[in-house]
Structure formats: C-alpha cells, structure tokens
Amino acid sequence: MNPLVQRFRAVVAMWIFVGWGGFLLAGFLGLALLTQTGPFAAASTFSAAAEFAPGAEIKVRDTGVRPGNILILATPATVDPATVRCTAKSRVYSTGEQRSRELTGARPEGTAAVMRDRGDARQFTPVLATEGTGWMETDFVSCTGAGAEAFALTTAKGIQSDTFRLGAGLLLMLLAPVLAGLGCLALYLTRKWNREAALRGGSTSWPYR
C-alpha cells in the first residue's frame, strides 16, 4: 500500500478519538457557558486594587489597573447601582486640556449581585465597568452614591459578559454534533478499510491453504 495512503488512514483512525473527545469537551463547555456554571459562573469575588471615599478622586494609573478596563464596586452591598454617579477624567496634557464625562451606575454583566473582596470580609455590589472605553479617557475617577460608605476599584479583565457566554455556548453546542459526526465517519471508514484488507488477505491466502 502507498505510504501516503497508510498515513492518511492512520490520521482518519485518530479522528475517531479526536471527534468523540471533541464532542464531549465542546458539549460540556457549551452547556457550562449557557448555564453559567463552573468556570463560567458570574464573578463573586475580587481583589481590590484601591479603595476611595465617596466624592474623592483617585488616579487609576497609580492603582496598577489599566484605565479603560476597570470595575467599580460600592459598599455596603445594599447600595443601589442606579443611584451611583461616577465621573471619569482624562489625563492633563501639556496644553492643559482635560476631558470629563459622567459614568452612570448599572450593574455590569458577568458579576454576581454581591461580591466579596478576597482580602476583606465586607460585601460589595458592582456598580459599573468601563471595559472597552478609551484608556486615555479614564485616568481619574470619582464616585458618589446614596448610602455608599466607600468604593473599590479593580480590573474588569476576565469578567465574561452574558453576550459572550451566549455566543460562545451556542457555537460550542453547534460544533459538538459536527465533531461527533466526524468521529462516526472516521469510525465507519476505518472499519470499511479493515474489512477490505481482511477480504484481500483472505482471497490471496485461500489457494495456499
């Protein structure tokens, strides 16, 4: 048999395991994404990079969090995110120009209603995330809110939105049967080739028996 044909058939045989293994993995991950369980559950803990009082202005760059990718939380956890108002300012340029904009509170997607700081027993409620905004437009932040005792700032990196979970979950659930089908096709072809090889071997050896 041609060596290239042998290698091709070996690769097809491997796809029996790749297809079925991929089917199980894609199905598991897709189901976890759609149901928001396991590693795709809503974030319930965080590590505060800085804490600031209501009305105080904090320089985001000094906290180590990348501006434009921040999550702001308020304590106590009973604070209503709708009452929170945050102001973001850009850095001051040599011309003295500084842009300012208001960030209204809205609980970010991908976070639990109440989150706990890993280094603190207090509970916080996430009030807004600025992921996707220009990093030069969120250099300074200050916040106020009804009943807020303090605000915490951390990175929004790694927090998965509901849109991402839904899109990725549906994609994996659609991919799972495709992988299963490829695994079944590889199994069918491998068995067919084995039967043909056995028949050829039998017909060749028959006269010599």
From TrEMBL:
Parts of the chain that traverse the membrane: 12-34, 170-190
UniProt entry tagged with the keyword Membrane: yes
Keyword field: Membrane, Transmembrane, Transmembrane helix
Top-level taxonomic group: Bacteria
Protein name, UniProt field: Aromatic ring-opening dioxygenase LigA
